[in-house]
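Per your request, structure below.
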């Protein structure tokens, strides 16, 4: 088995099948690359959509990944963004594999500048020059944050990771900062229009 992370469940499952396994672990000096600028936007949940649209129109480069935690939330967000004229596509476990590959190819070619995704896109997707990762929802697990933002700032390139954090996500933010061993810069958004 090889993985950047192995959950307790996967380790238990592997233990049922492997005989006398040897474990090789590499201690990572830093969890998140220095080339990724991380910013938390403290925003009311009701203002997240308006802030996201503003960011996509004013701050984002050629390619951005927007993460949500649930498939149905991703579908709703794609509909909303499309309604506001944002060219985007959906990537979740509900999307058939052949369509996911087409979406990724369109993303690589710059035909689709924004993908709204669940954590299915947080690991194993290698697309060069993703300028921004935006966490519309903070992930439930801090390790998923590391994987999500790791889609930008790859191969020596710089990247930006924005997280739209409402009051009910503060515990998740604290857990993330503990795992990455760094305080993330805050920008406070009040009554965003």
């Amino acid at each position: 088995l090889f993985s950047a992370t192995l959950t307790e469940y996967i380790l238990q499952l592997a233990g049922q099948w492997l005989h006398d396994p040897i474990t090789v672990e590499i201690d990572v000096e830093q969890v998140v690359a220095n080339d990724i600028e991380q910013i938390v936007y403290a925003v009311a949940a009701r203002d997240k959509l308006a802030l996201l649209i503003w960011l996509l129109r004013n701050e984002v480069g050629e390619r951005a990944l927007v993460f949500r935690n649930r498939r149905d939330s991703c579908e709703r967000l794609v509909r909303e963004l499309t309604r506001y004229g944002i060219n985007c596509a959906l990537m979740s476990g509900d999307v058939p594999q052949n369509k996911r590959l087409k979406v990724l190819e369109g993303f690589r070619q710059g035909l689709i500048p924004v993908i709204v995704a669940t954590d299915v896109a947080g690991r194993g997707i290698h697309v060069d020059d993703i300028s921004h990762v935006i966490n519309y929802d903070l992930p439930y697990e801090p390790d998923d944050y590391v994987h999500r933002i790791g889609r930008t700032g790859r191969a020596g390139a710089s990247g930006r990771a924005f997280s739209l954090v409402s009051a009910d996500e503060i515990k998740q933010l604290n857990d993330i900062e503990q795992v990455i061993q760094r305080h993330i810069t805050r920008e406070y958004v009040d009554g965003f229009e």
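The beta strands are 36-42, 64-67, 88-91, 114-117, 132-135, 159-165, 185-188.

Regards,
D.
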